[in-house]
Every structure is written in structure tokens, then in C-alpha cells.
Amino acid sequence: MNPTRLQETSQVSANVRIHFKVCRFIMEAGVKLGLRSVPIATACTIYHRFFMEVPLEPYDPYLVAMAALYLAGKVEEQHLRTRDIINVSHRYLHPRSDPLELDTHFWELRDSIVQCELLMLRVLCFRVSFQHPHKLSLTDVLLFMQYLLHYLLSLKHWMNRHSWERTPVAAAAWALLRDSYHGPLCLQHPPQHIAVTVLYLALQCYGVEVPADAEAERPWWQVFSEDLSKPVIDQIVLELIQIYTLDAEI
Amino acid sequence: MERDLLRQALGFHGPPLLSLLHTEQHDNPDFRGLLPPGGGGLESLSSARKERGIENIEIQQFISKKADLLFSHSWKTNVPIVKDGNEDNEDYYAIMPPLEQFMEIPSAERRELFFRDIERGDIVIGRISSIREFGFFMVLFCLRSGVVREIADLEITALCPLRDVPSQSSHGDPLSYYQNGDLIQAAIKDIDRYHEKLSVSLHKSALSPSLANTKLGVISSEDLPLHYRRSIEVASSLETYEKVLHNSLGFANPAVVEFLGSKLGLNESSPPSLMRGLQSKNFNEEDFAVALRKRQSASWALKCVKIGVDYFKEGRHVDAMNEYNKALEIDAQNVEALVARGALYATKGSLNKAIDDFEIALEQCPTHRNARKYLCQTLVERGGQLEEEDKLLNAESYYKKALNIDETFQEADDALLKLRKQIQKSLEIREKQAAKEERQKEKKVETSAEKLRKLLKEEKRLKKKRKKSTSSSSCDTSSDESASSSSSSSSSSSDNKKRKKRSRNRSESSHGSKKHTSRMFSHSSRKEDSYSPPANTSASFLNQKHEMEKLLERQDRLAYQKPEVRDREGDYVFLNTCTEDELYGGKFEDDRDSRYNSKTQANSNKTEKQRRSDRASSDRRDSTGSYHRQSDDRNKASDSGRLEKELGRREGYRKFSPSQAKYSTSPTGSDYSSKSVEHYKQYTSRWMNEPSRYNADGKAEVAWIKNEKESKNREREASQAKGVDEEAMLNGKGQFGSGAKKQLPQNLLNIFNQIAEFEREKGSKQKNQ
After folding, report:
1. Are the C-beta atoms of residues B569 and B604 closer than 8 Å to each other?
2. Cβ of residue A250 closer than 8 Å to a chain B Cβ
3. Which sign, positive or negative, has the C-alpha torsion B488, B490, B491, B492?
4. Which end of chain A is more exposed for a tag (fewer CB within 10 A), N or C?
5. A64 CA to chain B: closest CA distance, Å?
6. ipTM associated with this complex
């Protein structure tokens, strides 16, 4: 490896770390703002998409994150007020500080969020769906969760109901999916694959086997997604676990 | 930690996970007792899992790192799963055929799993295959509740015994209702998992409570569950899971995530996460948007309040109010703003608004000292206002409220005590007056024998008194005068009090039965009094005038003779008028009342005239005797008062109560006609300012009634001399009254006549003596 490439990779990993932190911020702020899962995931997706189009350096990632939250609230019909976003963000970035006074500084912050929102929309070309390897549109964020939930429901009926109740597979899968938004995983894989993978990992975590999977003509994950293969699942699992390693680092 | 879950995971992953767990979680005390010692009984499993174990070493590492989260109890305590009925509503989510249909699992496994997982209370659907005398058999082909499985090809039969078939109305044999091939929906009753035998029931009692309203028995093919119909479609078209999912309507439901999330027991408010930094249980409530906004609003509002207080101090009340309102717009529950605004309202005199604000503030912050203090003060102030408006009961409730808020609030306590006394007093007054009226009437109807007896007694007493005291009433009055001039009416003479007491007892005993009604009546009438417009409607006014003129003439004469007594008399008249108002207020219009009053006044004037003449002879009647005189003077006083205040009868009314006070405590001998009004005013003001004194007065008032009674008796005596005279007057008056008011009750006239007659009799007697 030559030094420039080394520098690049270190640069990339630094960026990944920053994005991870900012996504953590989005999620935490989202919970504190009372956002549902879908808008939070949307905000993360918007954030990741924005930084796929533009370099990180000229922008304040937290401002982008706040604007992404604001925009996601609009997209997913759970409108937020900028004042709340500013309050929660300020508190997050300056723990235990008093809420900002509603002075000119506050209004400047508010203006900057609105400006940033417009900028993001321009960067994303105002497109509800835009050119992407997987033809993902903004509302497609729903898909990840929709798929996962329907998979869970189907699986629930096939499983023994007592073992299902005893084992928090659904919660684990849900947590994994939500956590996956810390990275741009959602932009790199189709929603079905992500959904199957988080379900797979959740089942693995609790050592739950899908009944009669060995005897079946088709494994359960292939039922859910025809074009999925075991290596793909393993790959995504690795990427997913990779995200969690960052959790320990920051 | 969930021991069972951990065991399950360990059993699945084998020893590698165990060793990883040991290294990762060795300093976690929760795991110490849970982890089986390394190696151990898990070795046997490892061979079977070896392949997989090597495969997913990363997963195992992941599990071991997150084990404390994955196996924690709190992980499971998410929202309790909503037990779904059999709502297969396609609008909410995509209803999919059973998973095993896509997985193409051999029937043997499916059959085995079916009998493993089926449970009592599950609803199954089948077709009747044969009917026997002990029941019927049905072949199951789909499940409605519990688990959704593909069983159509498994040829599972279930028995529905006769006792579990509800009889259909009049049919003797319940089974005759059913036929081969009928679609039956039934609930699983018994499962023999070993022999793979099922029995079902058509009784609702076999259902689980959440499904209690499901229809059991024969169903039509349209009633078949959606997932079954879909699975038939899939079986024929060989569509993939994904396609079915996309084609179903529910998949497009934007709220599907929320719906299914709750169905699967996922908590949206504190979502699960395997990120250590995102454990929502570690989030501080204070950092949430709602709490922050509240805090921010509160501090913003407080700022406004401060500005407002500054304005207030500068006297810019409007600006201050604007600031307070702004503060409350920002934070509607801001205690400081409410208290400040309440204080401003209070200073502006809007006591009710102030009370409202203080009350809300106290609700928000029950420990707020200023709010409590101000509220009490305002309540008491408002109570005082109401007292002045003569709404005594309302005032009382305000005082009580103040005491409820602060038991130690002395002002309210005092005010309440005073008020209660006042209320009682006023009630008593009404009562007594009513009673007196009654008595007057009664007296007039009294048999002559009784009257005679009384008269005799009186005479005896008078004789004694005469013997005892040579001192005239002048000394009495003079002392009274001094007392009154010293301005404290509370220093009432003891004999007065005694008399009062006596009289009260008497009246109570004699009119106990009427007490209640009269009390109620008196209360209302009192209010009426206070608001009744000046009674100078033309007719009545004229009448009054006539009389007044007459009276005034007389008065003047008398005034020169005995100015000392006038005050008392004045009082008397007021009482008279008031009682009459009360008694007849219901029957007559105000003007009539007044007319009536004037009449009676005139009456009494006349009688008193006689008495006065009497009085010269009667030396030691000082107190008692004075009453007669007083009554004369009273009339005069009232007349003069009228004249002076023709326009303001209200004032006259006001006078009335203080005048009573005067009367009872210290009749002053100042020249009456000119000063009486001033006196009244003085007294009213005093009364208002110092209610405590008023209490004493109240008693005096009561006593007065007695006195009055006595005086009546004496009147009679006195009237001996001028009986004829009086009678004539009375008659004249009676005529006058009847002329003026046709509605004046006839019996009253009769009473007057009787009195007159009686007095005449007496007079003649006396003369004889």
C-alpha cells in the first residue's frame, strides 16, 4: 500500500466514524423527539444519501443531521418543530446545559436548519425516488421495516408459539435493523436482503432454528427473497457486526 | 439474565460460544452464576454443531459481546403483545399464506409440527366427513386462530362428540341439523398428541376469551380465512412470497409498520437497540423534547413576568398585564405569571379574576407560598365585598374557601366568625320581626280576658317602679347619651341586654313553630329590602307625605318636649317598617309596602302621642316607658328620614339596621330631626367597619322586640288617657289605608280596630283608677 492510499483509507474510516457518531445523534435525538422508527430511519437514510453526493468537509454533519430529522418528519408525516429539534440537539451536544434562550442566536440556528433542508433537497434533486443501484426512493425506507415485519409474522406462525413468546427474536431483529442505520448499509443492499439478514442474525443470537428447515425444499430465507444466497447473508452479517464494533470505539 | 435463553443459545452454538462468553463477560457479575463451567456437558452437542460453529465465529463473537443486552430481562419486557383475534383485515397488513407452503416442507414434518403446536381453544375449520350417533367427524383443512398452518393435505380428522353439539332449537337430535360436507368452524377441545387425535366443540365455552365472539358451527365458503384462500391461489399459481406480498393491499398501508410493530410487541417509544449508547433506558427524561420545551417556555415566560413586574412597579399596569398575558401564552401554566397577574387583577379590583388566577397557580404548584397567601387575602377581600353587598352566604363560602386553603389564616377565621354571627343575627332579626308581627296580630286577636290580665300585671309593675324610682328617664337617657357620644355602641347597657334575652326566649318559645319559615323568609326579604327601589311611586308617596306632614307636626311638638328619646323611637320605626316589609313584601308590591308602613307608622305615632302624655305621669319607666315615647319619636324619625331621603330609600334601609344598634345600646338624645341621618350614616359606617360591634347590636335588636312588646302593653296603659283620641286616629288611618290600598288585608284593619278598642277600654279603666 502506498502512503496516499493509506491516507485515503484512514480518511475514509475517519469519515465512517463521524457518520456513525452523527447517526447515533440522529437516533438518540429521534427517540427524544418522540419520532417513530420509520422517520428515524428515513432521517438516517437522507443523511447517508446526502453525504454520498457531497464531501463531508464543507458541511457541519450535525446541522445536516438536524435538517435530515426535520425533513424526515415532513416526509413521514410526523412533523417536528424546529424549536424542539434545536433544543434536543443543543442538549445533546452540550449535556446538562440549559435550553437556549429564544434570542437572535436561536433564530439564526433555526434559519440555518431551514436553509440546510433546502440545500439537501437540491442535492437530492427533489426526487422522491432517484437513481440508485437499488432504485430506492425516500419512502422505500418503509420497505426495510415492512419486509422485516411481514417476515416476522410469517415466521411466528410457523414457529411454536411458546418458544416464540419466550424468545425475543422480533425485538432483536427490530433492534438490529434500526441499528443498521448507523451505517450506509441500507443504501448498499436491497431491503429484502437486509430484512432477512437481521432476522437471520436474531435467530442465530438466540439459537433458534426454523422448524423443519433442514427438511424443506427451500430454506426460509430463500422463501423471503429469491435472489438471496447464504454468502450474501454472511456478507451482510459481517457488515452489520462491523457497525457494532464502532459502537465500542466511540 | 434469561437463563433459558442463554442455555438455548449455548446449546445451539456449542462450546466456542461458551468460551467466548467467558472471556467477554467474565467481569459481568450477572453471568457468573449462569455460565456452566467450561467444557462440561455441552461437549456432546458440539459435534453436531461443529460445522455451523466454525462457520459463524463472528456471530458468536457478536453474541458474546452483546450477551448482556441480548439476554437481559428488560429486553423481553417490551410492549405486551396484543392478542389478535381473528381479524384478518387486509387493509392493515399483508396476510400471507403459511410459510411452510413456500418452503415446501414434507407432510410428515408438517403433521408432526401441527400436533406439537396445536392447542386447546384454537379455532379450526373442517368439513364433516361422517355423522354417527355419538357425534360427527370432520376433516380439518385450515386454522383460523392460534397458528396458521398448511394442513389441507394432511387429512387430519377431529371428532365432535354429541355433547359438544349445541341443540338447534326444537330439533330433538342436534346432529340432524348437520350433513356430510358441511363446513364447520369449531374450537379444539382435547388433543391427544401421541395418538394424533383431536376432539372439537361447538360450544362457545371452548373458546379463549379473546375470541369469544367467533361464530362456531356451520360456515359458508366466503367465511373461510383469507390466508387459506390465498394459499389456494398460491398453490395453483406458484407465485413467490415476495410477489404475493407486493400484490396484497395491506403492504401499501403506510401505517403498516406501526400496526405490525404493536402486533409483534415492539415498543416504539423506547425502541430496542443493541448499541450500548442507544439504550433508551439510559436516556434522561430531562433531555426529551417535551421536557426541554417546557423548561424553555418556563424560563421565557419568567422573563416576561419579570419585565411585567418592572412595569407594574412603574405603575404601567397595562404594559404589565400585556407581559403577563404574553408569559401565559408562552406557558399557560406558569405559576409566577399567574400569581403576578392575579395580584394585578386584585389591585385593579377584579377580585374574581384574581381568585381564578391564584387558584390555577395553586393547582399547578400547591406549595407556592405567595399564591396561597394572595389567594387567601383575595378571598377574604371578596368575601368582605359580598358582605357589603349583603350576600352573606356567598361571603361565608369565600371565607370558608380561604380557610380550606390555609387553616391558619387568621383574617379569614375572624371574618368568618364575624360573618356567622352577623348571619345569625340577621336571621334572628328577621325571625323576631316576623314573630313580632305575628304576635302583634295575635295580640290584637287576643281575648280581652288575656289582655286584661296582662294589663293588670303591667299596672302592678308600674306602680312598684314608680315607688322605687323617682328618677325620671332623663337620667337614663342622659347616661345613654354620653355612651353614644363616646361612639361605642358596644357598651350597651346591661339591662338592655337582659331584656333582650328575655324577649328572645319568649319569642322563640311562642313562635318556635314559625321560626323556620320566617327565617327563610326573612333572609330573602332582607335582600329584597336592600334592592327595593325607592318606594315613592306617586300614589304611595302622596299618602306618605300626608301622613308625614301630620307626623312631622306632631314630631316637632314632641321633639321640643323630649328630644332625648327620639333616636330610640326612630329605631323602632325602622324596625317596624322593615318587618312589615318582610311580612307583606310577598303579598304587596314595594310601593304598597311602603304605604302600609307609613300607615302603621302613623298608627304608632298616634298611639305614642298618647303615651307621651302618659309618660309625664309615669316617672320610673325610664327604659320601658321610654319605649312608648320612643315609638312616637320613631315614627317621627322615620318620617323625617323619609322626607330627607325620599329619593334614597335604600339609605333608609341601611339606616335601619344601624339604628337598631343605636337603639339597643344607647339611645341618644340629640335633636333628632336634623341629625338622625348623620347618626345613621355614622352607625352604618361603624357597622361596616367593625362588624364585631355589630354582633352586640344584633342582640340588642332582638331585645328590642321584647321591649317593643312591652311598650305595646304600656301603650295600652298610656292610651287610657287618650284612648278615644287614638282610636279615632287609628280608625282614620285604617280608613286611609284601605282607601289607599284596597289590597290591604281586611284582618289587619280589624286588628287595628281591636287594638284601638282595647286601648280605649284600658284608658277608661285607668281613668277609673
Report:
1. no
2. yes
3. positive
4. N
5. 19
6. 0.81
